[in-house]
Design goal:
The protein is α+β, with helices and mostly antiparallel strands. It contains 10 helices and 12 strands. It has helices spanning about 5-10, 60-75, 95-110, 160-170, 175-185, 190-195, 210-220, 235-245, 250-255, 270-280, and strands spanning about 20-25, 30, 40-50, 80-90, 115-125, 125-135, 150-155, 200-205, 225-230, 260-265, 285-290, 295-300.
């Protein structure tokens, strides 16, 4: 199949038709309109074979994940998804692979009302770049820089599941299918992110682990935080792994959670909890913003954690 045939067959009609798309896939440019009173939120991510995913990974899952990571960034700003563009580099024009990739990308596009409006295919080592575009009312985007002293630090869902799946895959042990889904088919928290507009003071999505990603909020906001490790939301599998080696690296510094981490003024915490309950997405308070710079992690015995395997740099050398 030629590039044009591939695009026409598998990429010309992904996601719902939208009134704000005057012209989508098929011309030199797409023609798009941003609604009045809104900012355009834009983010791009590349997933490269052998670095971000295994070369033999299921192409349908890769189609899902390559869009999910972008949707997670839109969620982290409180933006509503609108459009995507896709640059796909393929070693060969393998139609079965492309069909499966397109299926995964399409299903998630439909679920979030996002329309693919353009793209490019090239021959080369397998790599996928997806740019996402979303809308957020002017002044309503939730930035990393808004955390204030006394705000509660919250996370959605559970932490470390994808990291445990990856660890099991690298060790060659049996991979728990539920954990594997968390690694390969993350569900971006778009509705939660949107719902937190006007409630959260700061937000980020968890792509690199809680310690590092929360660290971005702390630096941008000029504050510190103390986490209570006993309050981290963990599935039994991750809790067992943490207990076995007394190693907190899975929930603190393994990547690919694609949950949201956000700060909430104390008086709004019930609003955030109610939102989570309504969406079937647990919201957990895991710590508090302090004026002492850096991140401190309090253990069950009251001592501070000094380091975790493979992820010490993110920790401030808190006194
Ligand atoms: Mg992000």
């Amino acid at each position: 199949m030629s590039e044009f045939d591939l695009i026409r067959t598998y990429f010309a009609d992904i996601g719902p038709a939208r009134a704000d798309v005057a012209l989508g896939v098929g011309d030199d440019c797409a023609l798009l309109s941003v609604p009045a009173g809104h900012a355009l939120a834009v983010s791009i991510d590349t997933l490269a074979s052998g670095i971000h995913f295994f070369p033999d990974c299921d192409p349908e899952h890769l189609g899902h994940k390559s869009l999910a990571v972008g949707l997670s960034d839109l969620a982290a700003m409180g933006a509503d998804p609108a459009w995507s563009t896709l640059a796909l580099t393929l070693p060969s024009a393998d139609e079965d692979w492309v069909r499966a990739f397109s299926r995964g990308f399409t299903r998630l596009s439909q679920a979030h009302g996002i329309r693919l409006v353009g793209g490019d295919t090239t021959r080369g080592p397998l790599s996928v770049s997806v740019q996402v575009h979303g809308f957020v009312p002017l002044g309503a985007a939730i930035r990393r820089s808004g955390a204030r002293l006394g705000d509660l630090v919250c996370v959605s869902g559970t932490l470390g599941d994808a990291g445990l799946a990856l660890r099991q895959m690298l060790e060659g042990t049996d991979v728990d299918p539920a954990l594997r889904r968390r690694l390969e088919l993350p569900e971006p928290r778009v509705a939660l992110g949107r719902g937190l507009r006007g409630i959260a003071s700061a937000m980020i999505d968890l792509s690199d682990g809680l310690a590092g990603d929360l660290g971005h909020i702390l630096r941008a906001s000029g504050v510190g935080a103390e986490l209570d490790l006993m309050r981290l939301p963990l599935t039994p599998a991750v809790a067992n792994a943490v207990r076995k080696d007394a190693d907190w690296s899975l929930p603190l510094s393994s990547g690919d959670d694609y949950e949201l981490c956000f700060c909430i003024p104390r008086e709004r915490i019930e609003d955030a909890r109610r939102l989570g309950v309504g969406l079937g997405c647990p919201v957990s308070v895991v710590g508090v913003i302090s004026d002492q710079p850096g991140l401190r992690c309090r253990q069950a015995n009251g001592d501070l954690l000094n380091a975790v395997r493979g992820g010490f740099d993110h920790f401030a050398t808190g006194a």
